[in-house]
Design brief:
Shape: globular
CATH class of the largest domain: Alpha Beta
Structural class: alpha+beta
Largest sheet: 7 strands, antiparallel
Number of domains: 2
Distance between the termini: 76 Å
Order of helices and strands: HEEEEEEEEEEEEEEHHHEHEEEEEEHE
CATH architecture of the largest domain: Alpha-Beta Complex
CATH superfamily of the largest domain: Cysteine proteinases
Number of helices: 6
Number of strands: 22
């Protein structure tokens, strides 16, 4: 063997020893319990974060339970975040390739909440479905009697109705004490049918702050109308009146032979202790015809149900604050109330609703982002113009939708009123998901979903966004 060969062999052996040493120092081992810890010679496992929900890699994490709302909601309580329960996990901190570790955040002062008025839900509590007479102009009436002296600041109505060919239907809401009535649904049309929408069933919330008119939706799946929509006539006519008294919902089926029945209906009301003047219609703000943010990117989410954390750290990165996804998730509080914390096991099956594995809504995400020094504010009941103006100002928005890139359509999914164990009631829906709204033109929107960027039609996006009441995190109050 000559000297050159000896040097080559010696170099190869040295490289092999270095590789073995590096692998030993930087590998980690799984515990039998399903927890992870760093494994290196004579090392001590890194302790889990204190507080917040810890991912349970064994899939046995417990969560509090909640009950389905069946009758009347009491005024919304102030949300207080609380830590959830579950098995601790030692998670390896795997930083994204282009990111640097973020110091432990110092919570910044939370901006004072606006003087929100309580939102109260009054439901019919029907003992069973009420048939809607087929082809009968007399129709059917359902009543809700309310004993509450407070005044209406805002009124929405929830409808749960089984009926084939909803284009036959007319629904009118009336308040007997004030002699005010408004048509909520008026024989909704279909673009290709003169006889109205031929779809089946309605499970929807009619809301003056929605983006799409109720007559614009006629899906081929059931319910054909699901989400939040503008009523046929504005509900603002009831603002400033007392909620007290008898409310009626009149249902008329104008044409035979299709029939159906009313399952439930509710009034969701923002109430004031004093009589108030109706809010004047705001002056329209000019919105650019198109805008786009091209300098934002993301990575795929690391756990089945942590889309909100992934969206949050990608959104924060756009503003120059780089946060590890696992770190962000581990600091979220746990709760069976998605408006207060993360619900369920992050490794659970997607497509469920609380108290089963679900996810988290905007308020805890915004609060946590503020803890990293970022201006972040949770919103509901936004308009599409609100989103467009945000992007036109150079700021992307985290939005809560239903479905992922393959759909973003309500389909067979619909809004559900859910009451958590703390008494707080909120709207949830199956297949809750988050994406980042980054652009729009006259026909479509651009969304960042993890590492993917794709376009969807404006109508498709608005229908999906509406199910959770146009919820978002913005960089402005």
């Amino acid at each position: 063997m000559n000297r050159r060969s000896s040097l080559v062999i010696l170099g190869a052996l040295t490289l092999l020893l270095l590789l073995l040493f590096t692998f030993t120092v930087h590998s980690y081992a799984a515990r039998p319990s399903g927890q992870f810890e760093w494994a290196s010679p004579n090392s001590t496992p890194v302790p889990p974060e204190t507080g917040g929900l810890q991912p349970d890699l064994s899939g046995t994490q417990s969560s509090p339970t909640g009950d389905w709302l069946t009758t009347v909601l009491t005024p919304t309580e102030t949300i207080t975040n609380s830590n959830g329960t579950g098995s601790d996990a030692f998670l390896p901190i795997v930083f994204d390739p282009v990111m640097t570790p973020t110091p432990t955040p110092t919570p910044s002062e939370t901006p004072p909440p606006p003087a929100n008025l309580p939102r109260v839900l009054y439901c019919s509590g029907l003992p069973g479905p009420i048939p809607v007479p087929d082809g009968d102009p007399a129709g059917e009436l359902s009543y809700i009697e309310i004993d509450d002296p407070r005044w209406i600041a805002d009124l929405d109505i929830y409808i749960n109705l089984e009926h084939s060919w909803v284009g036959d239907l007319e629904l009118t809401l009336a308040h007997r004490d004030s002699n005010t009535s408004k048509t909520m649904i008026q024989r909704p049309a279909s673009p290709d049918k003169d006889s109205g929408c031929g779809g089946d069933d309605i499970i929807a919330i009619l809301d003056d702050e929605a983006s799409l008119p109720v007559g614009s939706r006629c899906a081929g799946s059931s319910p054909t109308m699901s989400g939040s929509y503008l009523p046929y006539e504005s509900l603002a006519a009831f603002d400033g009146e007392s909620i007290n008294g008898i409310w009626t919902l009149a249902l008329i089926d104008h044409t035979s032979p299709d029939a159906g029945s009313l399952n439930d209906w509710c009034l969701e009301v923002t109430l004031s202790e004093e009589a108030i003047n109706p809010t004047p219609t705001p002056t329209p703000v000019a919105v650019p015809a198109e805008a786009s943010i091209g300098s934002i990117s993301g990575l795929p989410q690391s756990m089945p149900l942590d889309c909100e954390s992934r969206s949050a750290v990608d959104w924060a990165g756009y503003f120059g604050v780089y946060i590890n996804e696992f770190e962000f998730f581990n600091r979220l509080p746990g709760s069976d109330n998605p408006d207060a914390g993360f619900v369920g096991d992050v490794f659970g099956r997607w497509g469920q609703i609380p108290p089963d594995p679900y996810g988290v809504h905007a308020a805890p995400i915004a609060e946590q982002l503020r803890g990293y020094g970022i201006d972040a504010y949770a919103h509901r009941f936004l308009t599409f113009d609100d989103l467009r103006l945000e992007v036109a100002s150079g700021r992307p928005a985290i939005v809560w939708v239903i479905g992922k890139s393959d759909g973003l359509l309500p389909g067979t999914f619909f809004p559900v009123y859910y009451t958590a164990s703390d008494g707080h009631t909120t709207v949830v829906s199956r297949y809750e998901h988050t994406v980042i709204f980054t652009g729009y033109d006259q026909d479509q929107v651009t969304l960042l979903d993890g590492s993917r960027i794709y376009n969807r039609s404006i109508e498709q996006f608005l229908a999906s966004w509406s199910l959770l009441r146009n919820m978002a995190v913005l960089a402005r109050p």
